[in-house]
Design a protein that fits this description.
Radius of gyration of chain A: 17 Å
Oligomer: homodimer
Chain lengths: 227, 227
């Protein structure tokens, strides 16, 4: 019985990849670079976005916001004066724990692609399934908060492997935690050797400039060089 | 197509509930009370368990540990001298983001049910899917760390509704956060009015005694009064 279920899921992932390729082709034709932003709940994705979108200068950015329920994050980002489109995953049964390519596809007509250079897709907070579903993005960024502990790369290796950049957030709290940053970085290199990483604090703004530069660079190199 | 998928999932949930009932009957026959412990990754489930299992006195406790990959948490708990059984959900595709009743059923023969009064099932870190899959437990506890922000109950209402107890963890960090505890509690009461809640710190031990009392009470009242 277990084997049957896995087969169903693999079929579903194949279908997802097909739609993801169609999304990506549409993004490329529109000249929009797409970044898929992932993390556990509460790691600070929205707070980092609030900071960085204000600093992107002449890179015109839009946000596609995935949430199980509610428009809280979308409202926070709209107040930063960027176009925000919302996907609620809560329809269906108890809510989807990730975005998939078809959800993003259904949001395409609502996206102002002609008016933006960079689309950041804020995924549902989850360290497992978002890593399994491509949505048509050019690059993937994941946020790991130091409050989550040093061992997360070992426990959720697929997520830490699936991204081009790891943002290590909440570093302003380091003095107040029993947290070994060297051990986190060693664990990160165990599962994804040499992956680019930035130490950031959405609260103090530390490192947000480097994240901005990374995003601007990705948007500039578009579409061939990334992913 | 979306509708088709939802139907498949509902069928899967029905099957899950059937197996969960079988698990629960087996637990009851063995005289074991079962608590399903859930949270986002890094909220402190394992750290709280490490603390509380040492204080449970004559309540004999065992732990069933669900993880996508690795035995880190199981090793931490084994060092607290409680019997630990591990389920790795990483087989299949990229790893299951939750435990389901069938996974717990497959672990039943490995559980020392005759030697324990209380089984704590530490679920995979995720605020969505674990709330959708009963595993045969008598009660559900979820951990919400203050570092995750005040709005989590509004964003993941099913999880906050699905539990009998909410542990608000990492309160030792409150002086270092921009965090409004009153707002978290108000949000909690919005989605689950009056649900029992305890303020705890796995790091300092604050509130762990109250959690121990709650667990001992649940184990004592078993099996009729809970759930």
């Amino acid at each position: 019985m277990h084997r049957t279920r896995v087969r169903v899921v693999e079929g579903l992932l194949d279908a997802n990849d097909t739609i993801a390729r169609a999304n990506r082709a549409d993004f490329q034709e529109a000249g929009v670079t797409v970044v898929n932003l992932m993390s556990a709940p509460g790691a600070g994705k929205t707070a980092l976005l609030e900071r960085v979108v204000r600093e992107l200068g002449d890179v015109r950015v839009g946000v596609l916001e995935g949430d199980v329920q509610g428009t809280l994050d979308a409202e926070r980002l709209a107040s930063a004066h960027v176009p925000v489109t919302q996907i609620e995953t809560g329809s269906g049964f108890g809510g989807e724990c990730h975005l998939d390519a078809n959800m993003v596809r259904s949001a395409l007509p609502s996206l102002p692609l002609e008016a933006i250079d960079l689309l950041v897709i804020e995924n549902v907070g989850n360290l497992v399934c978002p890593a399994e579903f491509r949505v048509g993005e050019h690059a993937r960024v994941m946020v790991s908060a130091v409050t989550e502990g040093e061992e997360k790369p070992l426990k959720y290796p697929l997520m830490f492997r699936a991204c081009e950049l790891v943002l290590i957030n909440k570093i302003d709290l380091l003095p107040h935690l029993d947290f070994d940053l060297g051990r986190l970085l060693a664990n990160l290199d165990t599962v994804h050797p040499g992956v680019e990483r930035l130490l950031v604090s959405a609260r103090t703004g530390e490192g947000v400039g480097a994240f901005r530069d990374w995003l601007a660079d990705v948007a500039g190199r578009r579409p061939a060089a990334v992913g």
